[in-house]
Design brief:
167 residues, seven-stranded mixed β-sheet, 9 strands, globular
């Protein structure tokens, strides 16, 4: 008898927020580093916007706002949001992104947790934070830190910033 193929119940659609602020180094963006053992030793190319999965009945902007607080903690705040568009990550996941002026001190990070079997096949379950670090980066450094598929969101943000400055 053929083995049954295990299918994933994870959504292939997420929504997130690229928070920004005017900092000492010019325009800065807030990125998060994923928690857990798989990401522990990865840095450049591993950071992301705070984001989470969308269920069929969810509005993308509401999911983005909810995930922003769940991944950063109650001290994180974000102003009005502007759509940044959609990117497709490796593995096919689509991310609908928004941008807004954010206020967050990375020292106050309080992230939700997730549980997995770790080490693999050990039978032991361990809890890890969804996000283990958050940091403000200038645009050029963010290009190095971010997942390559999300870098184009920085260009969309810059286009919005230039348009707003011209008004």
């Amino acid at each position: 008898m053929a083995a049954l193929k295990k299918t994933s119940t994870r959504s292939m659609l997420s929504a997130g927020i690229l928070a920004y602020r005017k900092g000492a180094r010019g325009l800065e963006v807030l990125l998060v580093h994923p928690g857990g053992p798989f990401w522990r030793k990865k840095d450049n190319g591993a950071w992301s916007i705070p984001k989470g999965e969308i269920d069929a009945a969810d509005a993308p902007e509401q999911v983005a706002r909810r995930e922003f607080v769940e991944e950063l903690g109650p001290s994180a705040s974000i102003g009005p949001l502007q759509p940044l568009g959609e990117v497709r990550q490796r593995g096919g996941k689509r991310v609908i992104a928004f941008a807004g002026v954010g206020h967050f001190d990375p020292a106050t990070l309080i992230s939700n947790t997730f549980e997995i079997e770790w080490p693999p096949r050990s039978g032991r379950r361990q809890s890890f934070p969804e996000v283990d670090r958050a940091e403000w980066f200038d645009i050029e450094f963010a290009r190095i830190k971010m997942l390559s598929e999300q870098v184009e969101l920085l260009d969309h943000l810059l286009a919005i910033a230039v348009e707003s400055a011209g008004k």
